[in-house]
Amino acid sequence: MPSKDIEINSQLNGVKWQFKKIDWRSYIVYIAFVCVLIYFSIALNSEGFLTAENLLNIVRQTAMISIMGIAMTFVISTGEIDLSVGSIAALSSLTAALALQAGFGAISGLLAGVGTGIAVGLANGLLITKAAIPSFLVTLGTMGIVKGAAMWTTKTAPVPILDPTFNFIFGSGDIGVIPILLIWTLIFTVIGHILLKKTAFGRQVLATGGNESAAKFSGVKTWKIKLLVFLGTGLMAGFAGVLYAGRMHAGRYTFGDGDELSVIAAVILGGTALAGGVGTVIGTVIGSLMIGVINNGLIIMGLDVSQQMMIRGLIIILAVAFGKKSADQ
Could you tell me whether strands 174-175 and 178-179 are parallel, antiparallel, or unpaired per DSSP bridges? Predict the structure, then answer.
């Protein structure tokens, strides 16, 4: 027996034990999401918070934020920012509605809305990469221009959409009990995750945000990467505008008001580094859902708008602060 003990001890001593430090910042949004969900489920149990109908309604309300957030993850991962996404969504909803009103059909409405987003995204990308203007200033300027264009196009009047096919596919439809908006969100989440984590493009995005000079020396065309990610946010904001139009059966210049802040909050809350170099698409979608759950819960609790804003802001700050603290330890 002693000889066996000696043999076992010698084998254990020869093993190189490695303990990987857990980066809690990567998981804080999931922990916070579960905690918020449990709290509202208990506090609002009698109000029907946890019913399938209410939960699916949260998904519908957050779908456009999630979809724009997926694209924003790429932008922020490069160390840039886009403040124009909400305005792009508004203008895209109107161009889609106008195309449908002219009788061109659902596909033309989709192309008009997405094409509007791509055009603005291209303008943003060229001004940032070729004119070397900071993204904050460029997108702040285009936010005002695009918003003004949305108001001017129809003189602030809504444009109704009477095409049932368009409304079903791009917003208000359900397949069984599953909202079409949930399906669109899942499709873009999978595409965005694979693109960021499993492709050379995704690695170049993270390299550009992590250290742009080093990325250039490694052969990465950082200007091209930034141009493409701004094209991406324009495209996805345009598609979000199409979804707004399909869900509400109209195009309106008010769609997307304040969405840029919710989108950026969802991205940062999800674990993407504001300085760039670190990004997570799945975290962004969970961050978006968490904001939606908070909004929905506070409304059911009967809080007024000012109280909702204060509590929502406090929860977001605490979640991000705890995540940063865990990452620094």
Answer: antiparallel
CB-based contact 82:140 (threshold 8 Å): no
* Rounded Cα–Cα distance for residues 300 and 57 (Å): 13
- Residue 80 vs residues 74, 206, 229, 319, 328: alpha-carbon distances, Å: 9, 12, 10, 22, 23
DSSP per residue, 310-321:
HHHHHHHHHHHH
Per-residue pLDDT of the chain (329 residues; tens, 9 = 90+): 455 554 445 454 554 444 455 556 567 788 888 988 999 999 888 788 888 899 999 999 999 999 999 999 999 999 999 999 999 999 999 999 999 999 888 999 999 999 999 999 999 999 999 999 999 999 999 999 999 999 998 889 999 999 999 999 998 999 989 999 999 999 999 999 999 999 999 999 999 999 999 999 999 999 999 999 999 999 999 999 999 999 999 999 999 988 898 899 899 888 888 888 989 999 999 999 999 998 898 888 888 878 777 877 787 777 667 655 444 55
Q: How far apart are CA 57 and CA 299, in angstroms?
A: 13
The correct CATH number of 22-328 out of 1.10.3470, 1.20.120, 1.10.287, 3.30.930 is 1.10.3470
Which residues, 6 or more positions from 81, have their beta carbon under 8 angstroms from its beta carbon?
A: 75, 135, 136, 139, 264
Q: Where are the domains of the chain?
A: 22-328
Ordered DSSP codes for 55-104: HHHHHHHHHHHHHHHHHHHHHHHTT-----HHHHHHHHHHHHHHHHHTT-
In this structure, is the dihedral angle defined by the CA atoms of residues 182, 184, 187 and 193, taken in order, positive or negative? negative
The per-residue b/e assignment along 26-58, b for 16 or more CB within 10 angstroms, e otherwise, is bebbbebbeebbeebeeebeeeebeeeebebeb
